[in-house]
Amino acid sequence: SVNPDLASERQTASFSVEKLTAWLDGGVECTRMRRAVVDAIESDPVFSRENQYFQSQNERYEAAVRKAVHLQRKMREMGWTENGPEFKYIYRAVSGDVAFLLHRVFMRSISVLGSDKQIAKWIPLATQYQLIGSYAQTELGHGTYIQGLETTAVYDTTTQEFILNTPKISAMKWWPGDMGRSSTHTVAFAQLYIHGKCYGVHPFIVQIRSLRDHSLCPGIIAGDIGPKMSFEHADNGFLMLQNVRVPRENMLSNFCEVQPDGTYTRRGSEQINYLTMTTVRIALISDEVLVALMKACTIAIRYSVVRRQSKLKPGEEEAKILDYQTQQEKLLPQLAAAYAFHTTNDYLQKLFDKSYSEIQKNNLEVLPELHALSSGFKAVITQHCTSAVEICLRACGGHGYSLLSGLPSLYTKILASCIYEGENTILLLQTARFLIKCFMAARAGQPVPPSVTYLATEKLGKCPARNKLDFLSPDIYTEAYQHTAIRLTSSAAAKLQDLVQSGAKKHDAWNQCTVQLVQAAKAHCHYITVKNFTETVEKLEPRAGIQKIMKHLCDLFALHGIISNAGVFLHDGYISGAQMDMVTASYLDLLPVIRKDAVPLVDAFDFTDKSLNSALGSYDGQVYQRLYEWAQKSPTNKQGNPAYERYLKPLLHNTLSKL
Amino acid sequence: MNADLRRERAAATFQPELLTHILDGGAERTRRRKEIEALVINDPDFQHEDLNFLSRSQRYEQAIRKSSLMVMKLREYGIADPEEIYWFKSFVHRGRPEPLDLHLGMFLPTLLTQATPEQQDRFFMPAWNLEIIGTYAQTEMGHGTHLRGLETTATYDPATQEFILNSPTVTSIKWWPGGLGKTSNHAIVLAQLYTQGQCKGLHAFIVPIRQLGTHEPLPGITVGDIGPKFGYDEMDNGYLKMDNFRIPRENMLMKYAQVEPDGTYVKPLSDKLTYGTMVFIRSLIVGDSARSLSRACTIAIRYSAVRHQSELKPGEPEPQILDYQTQQYKLFPLLATAYAFHFVGAYIKDTYQRISGDISEGDLSELPELHALTAGLKAFTSWTANAGIEECRMACGGHGYSRCSGIPDIYVTFTPSCTYEGENTVMMLQTARFLVKSYTQVSSGQRVTGMVSYLNDLSRQRIQPQHVAARAVTVRINDPVSLVDAYKARAARLVEAAAKNLQAELNHRKSKEDAWNRTSVDLVRASEAHCHYVIGKLFTAKLSEMSNAAVRAVMTELCLLYMLYGISKNSGDFLQAGILTDAQITQVNQRLKELLAVIRPNAVALVDAFDFHDVHLGSVLGRYDGNVYENMFEWAKKSPLNKTEVHESFHKHLKPMQAKL
């Protein structure tokens, strides 16, 4: 039965939860398909995550391999394919706890970077799992800056082979997933040398383990890099290469080729490489980041109406903690952010699809904008959502720290997203570089991509709001965001120019402005998010109450952003001190309004109990019962207490006679 | 030693040891600390495999083993000073919690303060000799910070002169107490006392939970471990359910309140006394915030001096990542914060020690302010340190995420302090209650003293038509004392705003509680501003005590950085109140960036001065010698997944799959 405290929350929903779910999924049909996939996976005991919180690193890894192998069988049984519409739901259904994710990256890099001949040779083998691939780029001493990699591949004309080496310890490949224990092959990135000349970093297919008995190949030292903050299921690995020879044909040669005699040829544009990075960055926003935040909100908000603590009024029952303003202030902005970034994700997806069709027509002009936006949003969204998940964790009091709440694993997993696929600060600086370039162009009257045309406008002036209700007008706050984004970009650009004019070298000037540039890039992404959210809300159907509640969330998201960055908005007086008080007042007024729909709003994310895997967040709200039952399953309760016989008993029996 | 680190150390403008002495409270304290450190670190009994590679059960076992030895050795060495015990314990357990924490930190002290002489005779010596191991069972599954909501009952039965203890609901099961799950055989249980049909509120009872000798749970007791957590692997946080469990009347702690044999209840004299313990424990958390953040900074800054990445100047070798402005901007304000928190922790400890003499003589006058102040500072410092540790981890890029960096461990060990000993938001609101009370006193013409005395100025400024704190021109951004005034003005403005909003809500015919709830976001902001001011004030005051000119110079830079960074991050407050102008904020931001470059050459020396031993730091990235990469490789080779070259899952899963596809 459902806990009455949770049941009562559902009776007063101002909108149709089912319709909101369908909107989130992109249509009723998508919802149906997603549920079918989730159901098929969750009803299969091999995919159970029941004991996950009690497992060791070794057990987690084994379970991930078992699931990955079983998934291949399942997909054939269900008629799902890698390119089918069901595929994107599978990952959500298995909650990421599955091996061989890098196998797909291995295949994709061969498809993009390999020649037709290489594709014809390797892709069928990989599809059949005759080999298991991984992707070895990052080194112990080198990450985001790819040109700094130290692994070498020296071409030997006499045997027509490349000789791969790890010349020193910092050049060891470090972190690649699936490489520590599972993969037999890897795409290794190395500095190419021909006749003593360095041609830069290139990809090579290297076999690292025997296909017969899985032992390491000669010249290969590889293993697991040890325990991490999360990802216990993944065998992130290290790889050391000692005079490992691979045939000339193993260099992926869609763009560059080494002829048998050592002649180096280059063809086509490597810019297309950016497309792969862009794809991955956009995909991780929805698969890794938004899902995690939505789950965290679901758990924290459901728990906050079940948990009662202290009294709001003397003589009454203890209040639901969600009725406290401070609790609303913690959780509701995170809920609004989940919806806001959901719409941003749609926007990026559409931009990507549009750009992709342009690129297929060989129009690469769309790439810089796509690259800048995907980098900036990857950074802003991962950062924002990571903090948001942590806020959810801490909003659950003590029980949030129990692994059984599900929140610690969501947090430790999402926070890795701030680093992988490009460290966030570096990505924001890439976006900033694009902004500065476009800003200069726009001010010089040259055409710029659509997302940055606003930089051309130079409006001073003041925010026209006269009372707190004015701040519920999307035009008012969107304008404020736009103004701030322009101001920050233009002042960073001016500062850069100043420094250069006063004799600083360009790179020095850049480094001295990076703190400001990061701020400008964030403001740009924040502005686009708000603008896009308001536009999305306007287009929603007014019926079914969805538009109304989305409008509230949009307002809350926008106003919360203004308060959290008050100094930036107040700085040039665009928003006055009195207006800032109005923003705060409007914002605080919204909290109790959204509070009423908080539970339906998380119900609409439509996570099953199995996928939440949380004692605090399940649909029926039987929190305490479940916490108690799950704790009994802990090995610490099921197995004996070896420490008692060995240490506690002598201690208690006072054999420490010296005391 | 790594060449980069050697160069960094040679370039420092001051001697780190001198700063270490200041942090320790004198050269003699430093010497003694290092002596105790050496006792532990050179003792083969305290060696063990890297904890990162052990299972939870193994980690618990190691902790128990070390704790037993620790108790024995402490007595053998005759270490009895509380601070020295703290050091010893911290070196043995390398800053981690351990299963006897609650026995030593709560069970024994509670016996000392709340047990009658007879009870001390019965329980204290056995507990001192560890025949009795106890814990402190307060929190329940459904109830935390709000103590009056606890549901466990202790009903007095005059017929047998016993209390009958019950956990009437699932939510009343005791949940979380450390050492309860597997270690303890006794617990001090907090329960609602019922006698003669009336509830007398919460009282403490000594409850035996496991059979002496067999360690089996007693009949009527259900006890166990609450399962895996975010960190705290060494600790057996437990649950306890009691079904009609009877204990003799003499097991109620009766130094203050009493139940007589016939069931007559005798009230305690004062309940303010419990404040003392809370103040003490919260002051420890402030110190802990400083130490945890210092450890994270040590790791991140040393690693940033060793790590090279990308290029700053075309054609030149990859620079140390510490040379990037963005990296300095992430780390140096945290470094300054760590120092600030050290001084705040020391201040509270000293103040507490000073006034605890008065308390034992019955003078409680200074306690309310200290209590209110420590609540807020506990929340402020633990929130900031918590976020700062994460920032340090992320500043180490991917390797920060590996457990070999040590930062994940620091984080999970530290982060619960945002919740335990008083949830932070609740703590902030306690401070706010004191601030509002002080504000009301000032409004009604009384004067207030102590850290809130700035509120006295409000009445004088009220004659001015403009905002109370509008005096922008006087702030000098290079003078810490002047910046303290700016923070003071901000605190005054936010306290006043919150108090006025509260009054406005009350005028809307809201109940007191509703009005308070509807103002609580403002109230938390006011408390934060107050705490921020106090921290800045204490940091600035500390500068004048530093006799060595080189040390004072570098600490003045750090103090300025701390203050300016706070203004930059909260510029909205300063602008809105008219304390600083737009132009001044621009200057603040500019000066902030200049200071980053000024502090840069001393960064490594500043973390060296924290003086963490490598064993205690527990980080491959943060090693003193900076030999990071070769040691990461050595560390990884010990990973459990590497115990065999071919993992068993190859034979179980991979090979059969390849055969079938």
Automatic annotation (TrEMBL), chain A:
Residues 274-436 form the Acyl-CoA oxidase C-alpha1 domain. Its main location: other. Its cofactor is FAD. GO terms for molecular function: 3alpha,7alpha,12alpha-trihydroxy-5beta-cholestanoyl-CoA 24-hydroxylase activity; acyl-CoA oxidase activity; FAD binding; fatty acid binding. FAD binds at T138, G177. The keyword RNA-binding does not apply. Gene3D superfamilies: Acyl-CoA dehydrogenase/oxidase, N-terminal domain (1.10.540.10), Butyryl-CoA Dehydrogenase, subunit A, domain 2 (2.40.110.10), Butyryl-CoA Dehydrogenase, subunit A, domain 3 (1.20.140.10). This is ACOX2 oxidase. It comes from Zapornia atra (Henderson crake). The lineage of its organism: Eukaryota, Metazoa, Chordata, Craniata, Vertebrata.
UniProtKB/TrEMBL annotation, chain B:
Residues 16-133 form the Acyl-coenzyme A oxidase N-terminal domain. It comes from the Eukaryota. The active site is at E421 (proton acceptor). Its EC number is 1.3.3.6. It is found in: Peroxisome. Its cofactor is FAD. Residues 275-436 form the Acyl-CoA oxidase C-alpha1 domain. Residues 136-244 form the Acyl-CoA oxidase/dehydrogenase middle domain. The keyword Flavoprotein applies. FAD binds at T139, G178. It holds the Pfam family ACOX_C_alpha1. GO terms for biological process: fatty acid beta-oxidation using acyl-CoA oxidase; lipid homeostasis; very long-chain fatty acid metabolic process. Pathway: Lipid metabolism; peroxisomal fatty acid beta-oxidation. Belongs to the acyl-CoA oxidase family. This is Peroxisomal acyl-coenzyme A oxidase 1. It comes from Zapornia atra (Henderson crake).
